[in-house]
Amino acid sequence: MRKGAVLPAYIIEPGLWQQADTSLRQWLFVKESLTELDAQLSMLGQGLWVAEDSIENCLSTLYDQFGGFQLYSHQEFGNQWTRQRNQRVQQWCQHRGIDWLQFQSHGVVRGLESRVNWRQLWHNYMSSPILPSPTKLEPLAATPLRAELWPSELGYDHTECPLRQRGGRKYGLDQLVSYLKHRGMEYDSQASVPLTSYHVSSRLSPYLNYGVLGHREVFRQVNRAQQHYKNNGQRRWANSMQCFIQQLQEHGHRTQQFDDESEMEQRSLHKSFDGLRENEFNEELFQAWAEARTGFPVIDAAMLALQRHGWINAQLRALLISFACYQLWLHWVEPALHLARWSTDYEPGLHYPLVQWEAGTTGLVPWQVLEPVAQSQALDPSGEFIRTELPMLAELKGDHLHAPWLMSAGEQFMAGCLLGEDYPRPVVDPEQATRLARQRMERWLSDFDDPAETARLQARLGCAERQQELKASSDIGVVRKSAT
Fold first, then answer.
1. How buried is 420 (Cβ within 10 angstroms: 0-12 exposed, 13-18 middle, 19+ buried)?
2. How many whole angstroms separate alpha carbon 441 and alpha carbon 368?
3. What is the pLDDT of residues 384-411, one digit of tens each?
4. Are residues 251 and 275 in the same domain?
5. For the whole model, what pTM was predicted?
């Protein structure tokens, strides 16, 4: 049904881009996507209206020019700043009698009382009709701020990211097509391998997170591909497509958890873990971790890869958080912010549930201390990933590549890698730090575990139902922690 003229708008909010989870790499991706969108909309008759100010001020400008209107947006699952801003926008709309219609996204159901049958609700959303794109837009009198005048240096962090993905729907669709036709066959078996994951993973996460591609749009394409490969007896392809569909659902599940318990951005999901690490935060250890100077090759290589690419696979993200929270015993908030701003595909609704999972503060899954050397040997047995990111270790062989502190002085000299000069010594003793972390967790649970809080969260977040859904929907036995 025709509602009248439409003004596509994007507000560049200075307050948002000053938040500690933002970065220049994220803004440049957004800017490229907006530039492409503006060109497409202009061809339809009305370009993108862009302004740099608070949303309330921009809405007031439009209200003064056009009078009453309806405001449309998708539901947002952002950080605390955006939630507070949305409350102000809601108040602005109510004061002026403006209808604000927010459309469902990610398959998340706002105000959901029970998680029973959540999987079916998710499938119903993913299978619901997608409105066609307009073929023409009525031009309006609003004067847009042209793309060449858009700011170019926004974001809390400006660390360079030379290999980041480019924004724009064209690039997103190219990634989707290449994944479905060429790159995705080994997704179910090779996505955890550090270097291989750049090729076999879909790499759709930033396009999904910023709305450049729609979740339903991608779901339908992947589901269609899965059926095609299944019908043609291409089992490896079909398994990988099914695995990816599961990850889209897991994405929705985690975002639903975040929407239900949004305080997890700033405090432990399971309240009995508040105080676990907060009072022992070591700034020097944090800086060594953030600057890839821990002396643990797989940790430093993962951090450098994230810096250069703006993306690493789910297993490396999990390892970085686990190492920070256990071996370094850092409270998870600052490490979470660092990984957020270095991730081009950062999305709070997915990021914080996974961070707390690895930090062991959900109380819903058994906590696990990942041992960096064992993880390094399992994820990068050949050492190709470590050597790519840390060329000073190129001559190290076998166990020495994963644990260079095992080398004698003579072995260091022969390898051309002197610890403390060419590569850092480990900032903590690996065995002692792991043992101490386990002792601390066991002691804390013994003293402060709260079964009532566990029961509340299990009921609130549908944990039992979720385990049944995963068991019922999985025919390949693999469930990863990140959709893309």
1. exposed
2. 10
3. 999 999 999 999 999 999 999 999 999 9
4. no
5. 0.93
